[in-house]
Amino acid sequence: MANITRMQLLRGDLKGDKRPFRPPWAIPENYFVDYCTRCDKCVDACFDELIVKGRGGYPQMDFSKGGCDFCEDCLTVCESNALKKISLNKTAHQKNTTNQTNSRTNDVEEASEEDELDLYDHLSSDLEQYLPPWHIKVAIDLKKCLSMNAIICRSCGESCDDEVIKFNLQLGGVAEPILDVEQCTGCGACFSVCPVQVIQLKLIEL
Ligand code: SF4
Ligand code: SF4
Ligand code: SF4
Fold first, then answer.
1. Model-level pTM?
2. Is residue 24 within 8 Å of 70, Cβ to Cβ?
3. Which of 34, 73, 78 to mutate to test the pocket of ligand 2 (most atoms within 8 A of CB)?
4. Contact criterion met (CB below 8 Å) for 158 and 194
5. Are residues 112 and 157 in the same domain?
6. Of 27, 159, 179, 201, which has the most beta carbons under 10 Å away?
7. Are 119 and 149 found together in one domain?
8. Is residue 1 in some structural domain?
9. Ligand 3: centre distance to CA 138 (Å)
10. In this structure, are 22 and 108 located in the same domain?
11. Ligand 2 pocket check: which of 41, 44, 46, 52 to mutate, most ligand atoms within 8 Å of Cβ?
12. Relative orientation angle of helices 90-102 and 105-122, to the nearest 10 degrees
């Protein structure tokens, strides 16, 4: 059996399939519950009230109110590094991981500064890139989708600023929603607008 984390035990989630959606740029769950001080600053910072206090007092996303526009307000107010942009630079990422395992906040801060310097050694600043804010993707249950049942509905497509959901017209008034999973940012904007709640958000395990 895979290792069971403290939070899984608290959630009664021994299989690990009830992991909440943390705010964007949350560090990996095992570290997150260590670093997050449950200060609620991210909860208060989100203008759209998408972050709520979840089990154990830890913040989690509530996509029932809308989608995240990645404004970074929650990231900016998090002083504990529980929400943190991680550089895609390989060296930097490896150093961060090592430092997170061995030490706490101050060490991570120092490592970040070093990492940034390393980054500029190898790349020009306009190439600086970070890990995505999360690994959430959308899945649509086509059997229950209104559009697949010849009822006019484009709600999910219309809510997606990135135009990730397109509709493929077929015979009989059916229009199949086609999702470009690669391009989906997991922002969640399509989740609450589906009149029959057939859109699911899922954490992708890497
Ligand atoms: S990035 Fe902005 S919209 Fe998204 S959860 Fe954070 S504060 Fe809210
Ligand atoms: S701001 Fe950071 S430390 Fe505070 S509750 Fe949010 S994630 Fe946790
Ligand atoms: S399909 Fe993906 S990118 Fe488009 S609204 Fe839904 S979650 Fe956001």
1. 0.77
2. yes
3. 78
4. no
5. no
6. 27
7. no
8. no
9. 7
10. yes
11. 41
12. 170
Residues 122 and 146 reside in one and the same domain: no
Pull the structure tokens for residue 188.
């969640």
**pLDDT at position 162:** 94
> pLDDT of 81-126, one tens digit each?
999 999 887 544 454 444 444 444 444 444 444 444 444 444 445 5
Q: What pLDDT is recorded for position 90?
A: 54
* Together in a domain, 46 and 148: no
Q: Which residue among 22, 43, 83, 105 has the greatest number of ligand 2 atoms within 8 angstroms of its CB, and so is best to mutate? A: 83
Domain C-terminal end among 75, 107, 127: 127
112 or 130: which carries more pLDDT confidence? 130
Same domain, 15 and 96: yes
Dump pLDDT digits (tens) for 178-204. Answer: 999 999 999 999 999 999 999 999 998
DSSP string for 119-133: HHHHS-GGG--B--S
Distance CA 54, CA 42 (A): 12
pLDDT digits (tens, 9 = 90+) for 18-50: 789 999 999 999 999 999 999 999 999 999 999
Range of the domain at 10: 6-127
CATH number of the domain within which 160 lies: 3.30.70.20
Residue pair 179/138 in contact (Cβ under 8 Å)? The answer is yes
